[in-house]
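Sat 14:20. Reprocessing the chain from the morning session after the first attempt stalled halfway. Input below, unchanged.
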Amino acid sequence: MELKSDPQWNYFLLQSRNPHIYQTKEMAKVMETLNFNARFFVLLDGKKRKAQIALLEKRPNGRLIKKLASSWLSYSPPALLCKKSKEREIFNLLITALQNKAKEDGISWITIWSSPQWDPVDWFSELDFESSEKENAVLELKKTSEETWRSLYKHARRDVRKGKETEAFPKEAQLLNEMKAFYAIYKSHHKHIGIAPYPWKYFEAFWNEVIEKGMGKLLLVQLDKEIIAGLLVGTFHNEIYESSNAIKPKTYKYFPTDLMNWKLIEWAVPKGYTIFDLSNVPTGKIGGKEEGIKRFKKKWGKIKKYHEFRWYSGKIKKIMIKGIKSIKGD
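Finished this time. Tokens:
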């Protein structure tokens, strides 16, 4: 079931109905910079591949914790390589095999995210997964830039116009040093909003594994000779997925994110991209900075619900893991 090396992984991924960049070999390497170990699983019928999924394994230090808190994670659903009429059957076979393999390998829980484009809640529930609701902002791109422009909310169009009236201008990064300039803004921005930043090695890997291989872009906004904002995205199949964005304090009046979003759309539409996923939107009771993030993303895309699914390998482990999480405040 597990593959150690597969040069055709992305080829098969692109044959599925909803290929996602987080299922690529390249993003798996990027995520390994966050102390994950990527593992690749396939479901075969004879020699024919029917499904595949890349999972990120985390095994914490310490004997007891390692036994209790080892987990598998996927930020996207599996790739199903079969007729639509057979998808649920193949899905069940794949997930059941993963549950058995998890028990065999001492994995305490499996977490798999669906996506706004495919959210099979009933399929996961049938296989004993719990679910929690998530939201993304998603913009459906039209056949032309003009049509897409007209489809935007008026506030998005207004703010792009306002940004164009300033001296700030968007551009695409060409050098790794520009990623370093973005990272400095990102790190400061995330500390400001109270979110732990990813390490530099994540962004270096994103540049080398994703952008250099034509699967992503870094957009920047420059004012005079200074970089004031950046937008990092993955571009895979027909979808653009926002990975990260950051803005320097006191530069919101230049509407940098609006400028970057529109420049990205102008590039993407002629190339046949149909989805711009602006990623997670804060849910539940929110206020302050989180409310501002949600308001901005709603300006650009429609809010679409999907789910995070979690399965525990045993009732005792489930009780103990949830107890530890409640003590930590997770």
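The domain at 2-134+307-328 is CATH 3.40.630.30 (Aminopeptidase).
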